[in-house]
Amino acid sequence: QVQLVESGGGLVQAGGSLRLSCAASGRTFSNRAMGWFRQAPGKEREFAAAVSWSGSSTFYADSVTGRFTISRDNAKNTVYLQMNSLKPEDTGVYYCAAAWAYSSRTYYTTRDYEYDYWGQGTQVTVSS
After folding, report:
1. Using H for helix, E for strand and C for coil, what is the string for the chain?
2. Contact, 83 vs 20, CB < 8 A?
3. Would you state the pLDDT for residue 101?
């Protein structure tokens, strides 16, 4: 079992920044690729960003590229999502998730069905 707890969400004005954190506990964190997903009101959950277990590979949805940065600190069992230049359309519940990395230092995935552990989510609201 891997338990994930997100924090750092809140209300921010457009153009502002937030840093989300996801703390992991339980079984090994280092052989897990990590991802951030988000779900806006009335919409389906969508992929935002992913990072390989080594941190050497990252990938972003087009909608957040250049504004969001995903990173991880395996010593602290924590993954981060730095969000800059926030827009009202970034509003939603943000979830972190963990997926098997198949012992690959560079593996990551954008497919939500490959993530087998999820956090409870943290609300991000961007006002215009």
Report:
1. CEEEEEECCEEEECCCCEEEEEEEEECCCCCEEEEEEEECCCCCCEEEEEECCCCCCEEECCCCCCCEEEEEECCCCEEEEEECCCCHHHCEEEEEEEEECCCCCCCCCCCHHHEEEECCCEEEEEEC
2. yes
3. 87
In the three-class reduction of DSSP (H, G, I as helix; E, B as strand; rest coil), residue 105 is classed as: coil
Q: What is the pLDDT of residues 5-30, one digit of tens each?
A: 999 999 999 999 999 999 998 776 77
Residue 68: HSE in the Cβ half-sphere, 13 Å Cα cutoff: 25
